[in-house]
């Protein structure tokens, strides 16, 4: 039976103005009277208007899942179901998009068809962890929708929720960016698909997120939004096309070149020569990307490529914000073996987290609690001055094994020199 | 169980392979791009070592999309853009074309269908945001509504590249801040301790877990009217709302006490300066649906002060670093209060331990 639309005077005000209106979209669905979701969306609009009026939310969680999985569904039951009965169950399926969020229209249309049949017709592209969020299914329809999305024809799988490995994001990277320093799709798919059990059957102390950015511009917001950030970089000299440098100076002028490129280098690694070519002090360069961003034709990353691995980024709960911090300054990512080694490091860190973190503690908080040096020892990574902004300023430390620790450093250095010479 | 009622086992396929869905020019030149530029706002041109060129047209969306909107994007992609799209992390939809002649008709079509083209380079991109009243179980405000209202106001700066550098805005409907760091962030800030429904706590909440969740150890088990419940030391409480998700009877929101706060200078990129967290600049802003005009006013004030005074490539936080906080508060006419001075752990590091003073 067709329901009447609720009056929504407050939401109606969000239909004006130039930006695309989600309210207009919700109303379109509510007016699809020949569709199974029309009444649900009418009551959803009613409940949302009620929230706008009272300034309170009215959803509560619960337990809903699909057969074989423990996570991936966000259950939502209405607390005001007596007034808005048709949307009393409004669950979300978190679904992992193709790496890099590439879609053929064919795939998007199939997703819409499934959600037209089994859901509310409302899809968010994308959630903050990178999920496609199919928002609004009844408890009964969750399984039906999943079965079709997970079919061979469509090939999508649920993402993470709760204390589990979460859905991950990779930037556009290799697919359309000259600054990309490793194969983001390969790293993203290899790592996440290796640990799907941790995603689908939540058993970790708390959430664990990976994010993949191809360069230090960090378009996937990895450093602050992931427990394990893989941020592309290069080890050798940046590439300079001096003809393009000259062309840049000719076109924009020396003042522009000095003010917007040379002077903005954070480590004073750049100098403009008298003939308008560029001198780069690559040992001082920290790969911040500024000059490469400004001079996209003239400057590009070097050939020896890989990633910096930073661990422990998160937002406020419970001890306050944390950025990820450097654990591996340069992780070479060229051969299949390199990607395999990265997967092994990921496994070591996840295992450490699973065994040592307290309930509801993110790995950054664990490191804060036990100290970075202890964390490094536990995961088998050597200390390195690139891991710190500066050495300790407090004298409160016991150093009676100083000589042994110093020996480790010199031995490590000698080994590295030895293997470098062997390679030559 | 017979065959008909046997549930289907999931296929644990994980992250889908993007290559079957990737635009053919992107696929062909995967890992082989040479340089890019921006011929106009909203358009990127990428050139490959192979000589291939691809133009990308970026359009804003409402993120929470009905299937008709998604099908409309598909129709446009099929007719004007070679049947492939991708989405950015800020919910912009990107259409790729292999011929320059296809760019203008695509832009015209997108704009005529109500999808603004922009969000590239030194523009204000779409606001990354969360779920809010539409779907979250703990929201203090709406997300899509705040974003719609704000994007209407700063529409011009999505479509034009007139800012000193890119501007990344975020919103969050609780202090967990799922929207993340931003050049400007509009986040819920609670102002009162939770109101506890003692009839429900024992049945709904795992009390030791709730006690453990509090960052300042302000929650303790208590018998209230003979019922096992929890109580909050309101002198210690910092009103963060951390107890509310694990224990919904500890309601942190109310019509009056849930306010908005504005934070500035967050950045993920490593370009020039290291990544930074955003900093509190204004709080006590009314949570005022459907258009949150008070919050929008402050955001615009900050945004346009930066637009006017920032130098090329300076992000919001870098601009403030140069001009200094006194001048920031002066230029934006925002009050500087005792609440701006951090008192959480490590707070002393945020004080000025020098004689460097701005006058």
**Average of pLDDT of chain A:** 96
Shape of chain B: globular
Helix-strand pattern of chain B: HEEEEHEEHHHEEEHHEEEEEHHH
The count of helical stretches of chain B stands at 10
Major beta-sheet overview of chain A: 5 strands, mixed
* Count of distinct strands of chain A: 16
Shape of chain A: globular
CATH class category name of the largest domain in chain B: Alpha Beta
- The CATH architecture category of the largest domain in chain A equals 2-Layer Sandwich
State the low-pLDDT regions of chain B, or none. Answer: none
Classify the secondary structure makeup of chain B into a structural class: alpha+beta
Q: Work out the strand percent of chain A.
A: 5-15%
What is CATH's topology name of the largest domain in chain B? Answer: Sulfite Reductase Hemoprotein, domain 1
Count of runs of 4 or more consecutive helical residues of chain A: 15
Cα-based radius of gyration of chain B, to the nearest Å: 24 Å
- Specify the CATH homologous superfamily of the largest domain in chain B: Sulfite Reductase Hemoprotein, domain 1
Q: Major sheet of chain A: order of its strands?
A: 8-9-10-15-16
Estimate the strand proportion of chain B.
15-25%
CATH topology of the largest domain in chain A: Sulfite Reductase Hemoprotein, domain 1
Mean pLDDT of chain B: 96
Low-confidence stretches of chain A: none
